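Let us practice reading a record.
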Amino acid sequence: MTGSLAAGVRAGAERDARLRRLALATLDANWEHDHTVPSRTLYPHQWSWDSAFIAIGLAHVRPDRAWRELRTLFAAQWVDGRVPHIVFNPALRVGAYFPGPEFWESARADGAPAAATSGIVQPPVHAPAAWLVHRRAPSEASVAALRRLYPRLVAQQRYLTGRRDVGGGGLAAIVHPWESGLDNSPAWDAPLAAVPADEAVMRAYRRHDTAHAAATQRPTDLDYARYVALVDSYRAGRYRDEGLLGRHPFLVECPLVNAALGVSEYALARIAAVVGADPGPHRDRAARITEALVTRLWDPLTGTFRPRDVRTDRLVAARTVLGLMPLALPDLPEPQVRAVLAEACSPRFGLAARMDRPLPTYDRTAPDFEPLRYWRGPSWVNTGWLLWQALRTHRRADLAAGLRESLLDLVDTAGCHEYFHPDTGAGLGSPAFSWTAALVLDALADG
């Protein structure tokens, strides 16, 4: 080994050790007796898909805690199978977070759990998370944990593929941008424009996010007014999903949410084989979801997947990272695989075996690209991690390695931030962010 090569190996090992220490310290600091908060500043409760990502990282260092993370979240599952996007910590004072439990009023809804929760969901990444936790640290205890969790995961899938198939085409519709996980993505601009709202509505509330992060990095007050209007609409119906098309102003089929549905069925097939259930129906449902995704969300003119506005029955024009997420489906047809890879490697997203800049969440060539504002341009580790996994699924080791190195270097330079500037790599949003730390641990262990 030459001197320069040996020095490079040492530097890489030192970076990885440094990142492991940082990630573990972040997760330990954010542990809250039976779950992990996303951050101690912006997000003091338990969030749904955050906990799934966090469990994946904890599996490498604290597997018992990883299972407890998932168990605590699913203890707040509703009777209809929905897993709420927030489970509120009752120890926090009323008004400590907006929108808090007094805003959601989940206790007034039929089938809500005893715990105070929100009434909406987030992407169903939990079955793959449970499978990865088991695979990272297999044991008799992990098999027992899978056996307990399996029927709850099945109920979650049944809720989304059944009650939320508003468009009737075999895909789940989201009722709020928050359900996508990419809260203020440009993908939601057109559907949101039809939601009547006035910025004055926000005078009745006190936003807490802008007390912890610059307003230039967060959704606008008009965005928030529309978010509030959508919750008002859904809450007025006690969070029931019957008749949504006739009464709710925002219904969109999201590529990420539905890709996660399909990937979850593949994960459930693996879990079923371990716990003694039949994996066949899960594989069949995965195939049907994949087919529906291609039928309803694929845009052959631009070679990418797009959300479908169910109310107008039109595809949304914005090219976002959401359009890359169906690559996670192992049986995605080859023409779509090739086209999505071309989209990811284009100047819009810049995926490469050696990346010059982080992966953005929105087309960086678009005139309304915003490098500072939340999901309207910045780089996030979770969407990078999801694409990394998808690239490995389709055996693109070269691109997967480039994306992994980009993610690790990003965190090594800026720390475990919530999100990052897509050009400079500067940390944005909340510091000491849990899913960033957790997914760094997973990338380090599985490179």
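A brief commentary: The first helix runs from residue 3 to 29.
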